[in-house]
Amino acid sequence: MKNKIQPTQEEIVLRDHDFIVSKTDLKGRIIYANKIFIEFSGYTQDELLKTQHNIIRHPAMPRAVFDLLWKTLQSGKEFNGYVKNMSKDGSSYWVFANVTPSYDHQKNLIGYYSVRRKPSEEALSIIEPMYKEMLAAEKNAGAKDAIGISTQWLINKLQGVDYGQFVLSI
């Protein structure tokens, strides 16, 4: 189901001690959401469980960032990045996300585990303009070429630095 919620200009900010935690299955459906996730998303636990994690995706997020997230996870590596999420009421909140593959006792991939925390204002002052430019590049390219164009913009901007290394450095 496509998210029909319209974003507002209201932004909510995580508290310094907050950690948003969720687990998903292999298809990105939420199987666990902690109380901080429920609080900031504005959804009930019942509304979140078995729902695609992108229920909280903010339209101001470049598609290329999520493409990078999935490619990183599918390669068996952890992903670190900045993400703007959208609550059920249309307000937004920024997080610094760490997403890791989850394995069972036989080392079979069973899903993904994500912990998000409050990002620094300094990091957001760098990330927000970058994401705006990436989003503009995606819109100008059209749906078919959006991810490739935006990814190339990011590669050019980072001048050989890996996105994961970059976000950990700011």
Question: Which helices and strands occur, and which strands form pairs?
Answer:
Elements: E1 19-24, E2 30-33, H1 35-41, H2 45-48, H3 63-74, E3 79-86, E4 92-103, E5 109-117, H4 121-141, H5 146-158, H6 163-169
Antiparallel strand pairs: 1-2, 1-5, 3-4, 4-5
Radius of gyration: 16 Å
Number of strands: 5
Distance between the termini: 35 Å
The CATH class designation is Alpha Beta
Strand order of the largest sheet: 2-1-5-4-3
What gross morphology would you assign?
A: globular
The CATH homologous superfamily is named PAS domain
Structural class: alpha+beta
Helical stretch tally: 6
Tell me the β content. Answer: 15-25%
CATH 2nd-level architecture:
2-Layer Sandwich
Q: Specify the helix fraction band.
A: 25-40%
What is the helix/strand order? EEHHHEEEHHH
**What can be said about the biggest beta sheet?**
5 strands, antiparallel
User: Which oligomeric form is depicted?
Assistant: single chain
Task: Describe the structure in your own words.
- The protein is an alpha+beta fold.
- It has helices at 35-41, 45-48, 63-74, 121-141, 146-158, 163-169; strands at residues 19-24, 30-33, 79-86, 92-103, 109-117.
- It has a five-stranded antiparallel sheet.
- A hairpin with a 5-residue loop joins β4 and β5 (109-117).
- α3 (63-74) packs across α5 (146-158) and α4 (121-141) crosses α5 (146-158).
- It is globular.
- The termini are far apart.
Question: Top keywords for this entry?
Answer:
170 residues, alpha+beta, Beta-Lactamase
Short note summarizing the structure:
This protein is of the alpha+beta class and 170 residues long. The chain has helices at 35-41, 45-48, 63-74, 121-141, 146-158, 163-169, and strands at 19-24, 30-33, 79-86, 92-103, 109-117.
